[in-house]
């Protein structure tokens, strides 16, 4: 079995990837800025190594002996950027991945898997796309055999997006929704993404491939929230707020030390980027989880 380092291995997506790889018998290393703080959050037998993709000097020691790198990094409080602390898409997703790829080449890594995002393609101008295009280019041109995943909206235990709506349903007499609620999304259960990453390591077909991946259903935001309410056994009306008004209210919030919202984050939330699961289902033999089944943890 391979020695696999997961960058972002203590975060929402990365920790699920770590658990899946460890269950498959791999020797797994989770890269963390604060390893001591992360202990106890990962399965027994997983190694924690200190490293920060914003500091290339820390990456060489972290990659010693590593066969495969999985990059599933997200900055704290994603998708709300905090430029004063260096938590931006370009600094973390973009330039951070470039640094990680360079370090992986020097360390002799034999496979690189990058978790990108749905809608990443040339011509996109939003900061998250600019950063992910930068990262994908570095991965493709590295000379290291790679697999790139472009997931749709990922949900599951510990996520900070869909679970916010669950919190609203518990504490408010209504569920607030930004915009019309007609934005269409293919919500992807986090364990399905983790299993796709694990399956790609065992498939020659996945080498040097870029896969879109989303859930099996294309749903509006209103449909997603109503499904969540049914699973929770609650009834709440949906209260829609115009996107422009929310962005106006969010403008001053972005200057707080720990901003809860920003105008750009509103755009991120309202992003509509359909994905085509044909390739990932054909090559990796996955079963994608319907939303109601994936949300059982909310019962």
Structure characterization notes:
The chain has 299 residues and is of the alpha/beta class. It has a domain at 3-158 and 187-216 and 274-289: Rossmann fold. It has a 7-stranded parallel beta sheet, sandwiched between helices. It is globular and about 55 Å long. Strand 1, helix 1 (12-23) and strand 2 (27-32) form a beta-alpha-beta unit. It has helices spanning 12-23, 35-38, 59-62, 89-107, 127-140, 162-171, 190-201, 221-232, 243-250, 263-269, 278-284, 291-294; strands at 3-7, 27-32, 47-50, 68-71, 111-115, 146-151, 154-155, 175-178, 184-185, 188-189, 209-213, 219-220, 238-241. The longest helix has 19 residues, at 89-107.
């Amino acid at each position: 079995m391979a020695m696999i380092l997961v960058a972002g291995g203590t975060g929402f997506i990365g920790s699920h990837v770590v658990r899946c790889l460890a269950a498959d018998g791999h020797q797994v290393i989770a890269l963390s800025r604060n390893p001591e703080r992360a202990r106890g959050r990962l399965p027994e037998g997983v190694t924690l190594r200190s490293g920060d993709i914003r500091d290339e000097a820390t990456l060489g020691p972290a990659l010693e002996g590593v066969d495969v790198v999985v990059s599933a990094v997200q900055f704290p409080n994603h998708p709300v950027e905090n430029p004063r602390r260096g938590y931006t898409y370009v600094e973390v997703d973009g330039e951070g991945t470039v640094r990680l790829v360079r370090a992986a080449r020097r360390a002799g890594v034999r496979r690189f898997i990058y978790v990108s995002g749905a809608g990443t393609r040339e011509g996109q101008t939003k900061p998250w796309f600019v950063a992910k295009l930068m990262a994908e280019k570095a991965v493709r041109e590295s000379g290291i055999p790679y697999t790139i995943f472009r997931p749709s909206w990922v949900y599951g235990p510990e996520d900070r997006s869909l679970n916010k709506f669950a919190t609203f349903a518990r504490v408010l007499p209504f569920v607030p929704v930004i915009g019309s609620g007609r934005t269409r999304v293919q919500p992807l259960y986090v364990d399905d993404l983790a299993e796709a990453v694990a399956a790609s390591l065992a498939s020659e077909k996945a080498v040097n491939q870029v896969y879109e991946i989303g859930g099996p259903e294309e749903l509006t935001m209103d449909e997603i929230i109503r499904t969540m309410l049914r699973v929770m056994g609650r009834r709440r009306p949906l209260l829609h707020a115009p996107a422009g008004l929310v962005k106006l209210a969010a403008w001053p919030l972005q200057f707080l030390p720990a901003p809860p919202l920003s105008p750009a984050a509103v755009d991120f939330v309202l992003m509509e980027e359909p994905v085509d699961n044909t390739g990932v289902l054909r090559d990796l033999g996955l079963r994608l989880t319907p939303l109601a089944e994936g949300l059982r943890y909310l019962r």
